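Predict the 3D structure for this chain.
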Amino acid sequence: MNTKQRNRAIVLLAVGAGLIGGVVLGQLSIAGAPVGIQQTPQTAQVVRAEKFELLGQTGMRRAALELEPNREPALKLYEEGNLRAGLSLSPDGGPNLLFWDGQTTIPRAGLALLPNGSPSLELADRNGNLRTVYGAGTKDALARSKRTSEGSGVTL
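Done. Predicted structure below.
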């Protein structure tokens, strides 16, 4: 076989392989549509769950949207696995915004709107002792939260 015939055989073989591959791929289907004309997946209008977690590239939890043991919603933000901030509703429906130092499970600062509508800003030391309370109300946001650790169901 000379060079010209060999080149012609290689071209015919390549064209034949391409045709066979195209036919095979055309017959394969994913979700009922041929590969070449797959439809875009439909997005759900509503996703329902009791807890959603957002993980970082290393698989570590970065955020959580969940229901607390008291069945109130909470959004928690984490840094290197440690709870750092949380936004939630108290059982009486008042909003709470709490901050942790990342070294303890006791919130260090809290901002709350009390049931009577009064705002409250509370600052605590590392042991959870309230050091400063601003607002016309009671020691409410941190007092509700510091009783339990995050592992046993902290109420924000």
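Residues 144-156 have pLDDT under 50 and may be disordered.
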